[in-house]
Each structure stands twice: as structure tokens, then as C-alpha cells.
What does this fold into?
Amino acid sequence: MSHLVLKINQLKQDKEFPFEINKKLKTFEYFQKRASNEEIFSELCFCILTANCQAKTCIEIQNSNNFKFSTATEEKIKRHLINHHYRFPSIRTKYIIDAQQYSNTIREILNKYTGLEKREWLVNNIKGLGMKESSHFLRNIGYKHYAIIDTHILNLLDKTDFIKKPKTITKKNYLYIEQKLKTLAKETELNLASLDLYLWYIQTGMILK
It folds into this structure.
């Protein structure tokens, strides 16, 4: 039994931790059932912002003053990012402005596709979303079968000898690691959405989104 399996199973035996994980998962499930287009688009923008940036900062940007990404002007979005000391205000503002064309239709568009096709559509049509960011968005709006392979997860997998961290994450590498994580999820009786929260906590000590 691998170190990761042992650690995850220990956390599953904790009285409080599984409850906190399930509470977080229920917030994701809300998006599947009752979220407005505005809320879904806000989550899309959050995931555009997270690439190479701290999740806590992006959460603050998203939640600050109930900021509406779907209707904000380019100048207003850029100023909002700068006010929060965001690292890439210009390029990420342009990505959000480009994505606004889907602000009222993203749910309907995704419903047309199944499985990995949803992620492919996002990667191919939303500027600023790669495999990781697209998977992150889909998980955050209630889909449970995509792996979010970010730097924290890669470092954890590497230091526990689960995989050797690749120098670059190509699509081929991403899909290979995702398949390995599916095996780990099966061993620990979790879906990929839950597994990500466990692994992120093991590496960072935090449960975020």
C-alpha cells in the first residue's frame, strides 16, 4: 500500500475531515442544480485567474463586493485586479472580456457535450483555460471525474514517488497522470473531485476550491 493511500485512509478515519470535504463538495454540487449563469461565469473567471497565481488571492478577487465579471468593462476588471495586487492584470482581463460572449450560455453549451468533450470544448474555446484550469472549472461546478493537476499536486505526487514530475505538462502527460490518479481514486474509494481535496490538504494543509 502506497504512502498516499495510507495517508488518505488515515484522513478518512478522522471524525471531522470527511465532513469538511463533503461540505465543500456540496458547494460544487449546488452549481449543477441551482446556480445562475452569473455564478457559473464568475467561477469560470476564477479559474482563468488561478493559473500561476495563489488560490486565496483569486478567491478574494472573485468574492470582493460581489463583483460581476459578466458585465464589467475591460477597464473596470483590470482596475479590480490591480487593486488586489494580481500578478497578470492585463492579459487575464483580456481573457475574461473574450469569455464574456459565453456568460449567458456556458451551461447550455456544456450540456451538449459528454465526458471529456466538455473539457475539450473549454480548452479549445476559452482563452486562458488549459487542461488544468478547465478541469478545475468543471470540478467547481459539480463534475466529479476530472483531475486538477496543479503544481501542488505534482509536487506531492513526485515527493511520494507516485510519479516522476515531468519538466513540462503536455496534454499527453496530463492524461497519463490523470489516469494514474483515477487508479488512486479507485484504491481509496473516492472520485477525482474528492481525491483532489484530500491531496491538496495533504500538501498545503488547506481545503479550498
The chain has a mean pLDDT of 94. The chain has two domains: 3-28+147-204, 36-140. The two ends are 28 Å apart (CA to CA).
